[in-house]
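Hi P.,

Sorry for the delay on this. The queue was packed all week, but I finally got your sequence through. Input first:
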Amino acid sequence: MNITPQEYDKMSRSVSPKSRSIVNIPVAFAVGGAICVVGQLLLSLFEYYGFGKTAAGTWTSVILIGLSALCTGLGWYAKLAKHAGAGTLVPITGFANAVSSSAIEARSEGYVLGVGAKIFTIAGPVILYGCTASVAYGLLYCIFA
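Then the structure:
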């Protein structure tokens, strides 16, 4: 069957759900902002109780990662993401969700060939290209700075 790009586009548009950007964008913004507010509250709380800036940031990160992994394991993160979309992709919590969900899906295959082999299925490209980009930027900085 030969289909032109225009015909394919028409078919694709007819079966694709309609985007509700007018609702989705503010919800994503609000949820992402709420996650960031929780992080800022934790950071301020740790600093208030005498933790140094580095220690407060570390504990805030650990707690956000732990909460994200826990919510992923309980199925809450997927429900939130269904309504909040990109708002749940706040870097640290979104990354923890990606790693946790891959591990949960692969656990039936065992710890070595399942979890160990597939835990970075989603997050792996982010790590790879992030590291590659940082090396490239570092080299450019060394050459031109």
